[in-house]
């Protein structure tokens, strides 16, 4: 995928990832004084919603634009239970920074539509009618594009359509912005896309939005590419995959005679702790090189068994997303939720063991289990190779497959548990994790681990050599230079 863009407000740089040149914009608090120029013609930014992303983005943009003539206003439905939370964060009706959803849309020059996917699908026609010609519609996820394609409909031709997609959950977007108040360039990286440019200002507004959120680096993508990789990633290694991996590993370790806490340490804690920290700092190849000869052999066996599972299931997930089946299933599930609400997933033995294990955990003493590492990295590489095969830019592949996991999601999982993470993300992600985690669990348990235990000749010994020579390692090395300058802190 060849992409390029022009900006007169910010300084564009180039990086080369696997022989492909990609344009990027470096962020930083020293660029906040350029935001009024980026938002030329914008007097009001309407942030619609108050979920994790909306609340984080509204506060970040308000703080970044302080002292400028651009006003950030939050729009909520009448009677919304989130209204009080928005007031506590400093938005109010009296100041004109909190209002009714459609009134805010109609009055805003840049509308950031950050309500749930299900709400977007239900309300998009009314939202489109409220948009004034010549304004800009902003999204942080391409779900609505996928839904429109299923309906045979389009965005209004009279408005810009852009996207800025932070590579982390809303809590990370806000927390790193606050942590970086004294550290220039601290935040969550983001991708941006321009779907329609009616005003001729779409790119500048998208980049201004990203810089205003505190993104240290902004990469380019397309709206379709973003939602394909994002929905696939959250159903694979980011949520559904990691959920299924640790479930299968925990049961395997318990069957081998480990007690509950030890099994939890070597499965869940290992993935969200030492594995994620090592990959974040040194990449996948750095994790592998950290192991001794015997550990590398154990890693290689687990990797050779898990990689085909990750590759097969991520291909299936991608096909379900690109065909529209996954989007339709989310819409249908949303229609059932009033009658069949999602239950929490923290009642099984492993999740209960985690509650105990986290009470006295010593992070410095956590084991880096080579079998767990090989299994996790095998599934992750299966996702990477799927997105490579489908033609996604390497910056997007690295972010959606590795960086978002190790630098944003996994730290929260480590602090509060994977079950907590799954139960406190978007409805779309929760549904996807519940649907696909059992598939990863099943194939690892029924196919991958028996192949190792039975010393099957079907295990491809060449996979580890392909892993060692994979171009993703150089991509991650370059991307590591663009990671946030402070680590996420989970209180």
From TrEMBL:
Pathway: Amino-acid biosynthesis; L-isoleucine biosynthesis; L-isoleucine from 2-oxobutanoate: step 2/4; Amino-acid biosynthesis; L-valine biosynthesis; L-valine from pyruvate: step 2/4. Mg(2+) 2 binds at residues 230, 400, 404. Residues 25-221 form the KARI N-terminal Rossmann domain. Keywords: Amino-acid biosynthesis, Branched-chain amino acid biosynthesis, Magnesium, Metal-binding, Oxidoreductase. Substrate binds at residue 426. It comes from the Bacteria. Belongs to the ketol-acid reductoisomerase family. InterPro entries: 6-PGluconate_DH-like_C_sf, 6PGD_dom2, KARI, KARI_C, KARI_N, NAD(P)-bd_dom_sf. The keyword Magnesium applies. Mg(2+) 1 binds at residues 230, 234. PANTHER family: KETOL-ACID REDUCTOISOMERASE, MITOCHONDRIAL. Its cofactor is Mg(2+). This is Acetohydroxy-acid isomeroreductase. Residues 222-364, 383-491 form the KARI C-terminal knotted domain.
């Amino acid at each position: 995928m060849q992409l390029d863009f022009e900006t007169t407000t910010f300084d564009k740089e180039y990086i080369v990832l696997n022989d492909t040149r990609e344009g990027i914009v470096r962020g930083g608090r020293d660029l906040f004084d350029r935001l009024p120029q980026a938002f030329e013609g914008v007097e009001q930014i309407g942030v619609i919603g108050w979920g994790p992303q909306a609340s984080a983005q509204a506060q970040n943009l308000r703080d970044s634009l302080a002292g400028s003539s651009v006003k950030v206003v939050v729009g909520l439905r009448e009677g919304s239970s989130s209204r009080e939370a928005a007031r506590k964060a400093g938005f109010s009706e009296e100041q004109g920074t909190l209002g009714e959803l459609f009134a805010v849309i109609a009055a805003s020059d840049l509308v950031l539509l950050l309500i749930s996917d299900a709400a977007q699908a239900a309300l998009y026609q009314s939202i489109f009618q409220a948009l004034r010609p010549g304004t800009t519609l902003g999204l942080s996820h391409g779900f609505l594009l996928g839904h429109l394609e299923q309906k045979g409909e389009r965005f209004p031709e009279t408005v810009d359509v852009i996207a800025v997609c932070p590579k982390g959950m809303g809590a990370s977007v806000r927390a790193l912005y606050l942590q970086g108040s004294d550290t220039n360039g601290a935040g969550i990286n983001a991708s941006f896309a321009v779907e329609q440019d009616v005003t001729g200002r779409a790119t500048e507004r998208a980049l201004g939005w990203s810089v205003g959120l505190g993104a240290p680096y902004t990469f380019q993508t397309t709206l379709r590419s973003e939602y394909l990789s994002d929905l696939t990633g959250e159903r694979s290694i980011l949520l559904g995959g990691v959920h299924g991996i640790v479930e299968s590993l925990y049961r395997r370790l318990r069957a081998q005679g480990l007690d509950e806490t030890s099994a939890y340490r070597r499965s869940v804690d290992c993935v969200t702790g030492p594995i994620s920290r090592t990959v974040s700092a040194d990449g996948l190849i750095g994790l592998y090189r950290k192991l001794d000869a015997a550990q590398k052999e154990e890693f290689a066996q687990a990797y050779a068994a898990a990689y085909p599972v990750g590759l097969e299931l991520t291909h299936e997930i991608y096909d379900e997303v690109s065909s529209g089946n996954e989007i339709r299933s989310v819409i249908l599930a949303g229609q059932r939720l009033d009658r069949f609400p999602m239950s929490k997933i923290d009642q099984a033995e492993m999740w209960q063991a985690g509650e105990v294990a986290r009470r006295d955990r010593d992070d410095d003493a956590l084991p880096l289990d080579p079998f767990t590492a090989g299994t996790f990295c095998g599934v992750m590489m299966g996702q990477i190779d799927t997105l490579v095969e489908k033609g996604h830019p390497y910056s997007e592949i690295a972010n959606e497959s590795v960086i978002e996991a190790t630098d944003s999601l996994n730290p929260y999982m480590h602090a509060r548990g994977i079950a907590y993470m799954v139960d406190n993300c978007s409805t779309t992600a929760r549904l996807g994790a519940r649907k696909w985690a059992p598939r990863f669990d099943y194939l690892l348990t029924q196919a991958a681990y028996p192949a190792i235990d039975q010393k099957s000749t079907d295990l491809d010994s060449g996979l580890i050599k392909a892993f060692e020579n994979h171009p993703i390692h150089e991509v991650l090395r370059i991307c590591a230079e663009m990671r946030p300058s402070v680590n996420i802190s989970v209180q």
